[in-house]
Target: DUF1543 domain-containing protein
Amino acid sequence: MKDINLYAVLLGGKIRENHLMEDHHLVFVAAANEEEARRLARKKWNADDIHVDGTQQLNIVDGYQIKLEKTECQDDDFQLNSEYSV
Model:
């Protein structure tokens, strides 16, 4: 099995018709490499003229190592922490 890493991908694109400025969306994906992360991230946003502004593989955050483990959940399932401020 290939190593899977967590990536943060910043996307740019247009979500409003006749809108002069582009919008941005930050998505997180689990992927084997940066190329795959960019491809998967584009699928997570419904916008026109989507492009990648930046990609970062996340290994350690605030002194905590990130370790991904496969769960029984479907690929697109995610859970929100309801105690986190919005």
Remarks:
- The chain has one helix and five strands.
- The first strand starts at residue 5 and ends at 14.
